[in-house]
Design brief:
The termini are far apart. This protein is α/β, with parallel strands linked by helices. Strand 3 (about 100-105), helix 4 and strand 4 (about 135-140) form a beta-alpha-beta unit. A four-stranded parallel β-sheet has the order 1-2-3-4. The chain has four helices and four strands; from the N terminus they run αβααββαβ.
Length: about 160
Amino acid sequence: MTADFFKHARRIIEEKITKYLKETPGIKIIDISHNDTGGYCECEKCSVIDIPEGSKMASLLVFINKIAAKFQKQYPDLVFTTLAYGGTIKPPKSIKPAKNVMITLCTDLHWNYICMPIWDTKQFDDYMKGWKKLGARFTIWDYPIYHTKYLMPVLNME
């Protein structure tokens, strides 16, 4: 992992966060998440982190951890969140979220399990256990929707 990992992008985001926190006192949560529909970076700097860690979340988590570290002392109650879904739902093998980073574990890959508790799927259970093993604080974002039939009611039995 290089010291200049996304240095320019990180600087821009940190400047925007700093400005926003000054203009909007009392903010407790800042979210930094990847875009929908995949398209994850495959550059050498990301791949050297993601491949050994077995997850596209690895490079994103390194990025977010560095940003979160910059604000931890001045804003001890500020929490950085990131969505874990699609290619980033699987936890990395060893990269842990910083103490002021919380993972929002999404059930998006499991929406076809209509009317059953989403955490009853082995794959999702394994992801939760993996994040827990890393010591991650996480919350669950459930998608009670049937994506191919939007007008169909979906009962969330939990």
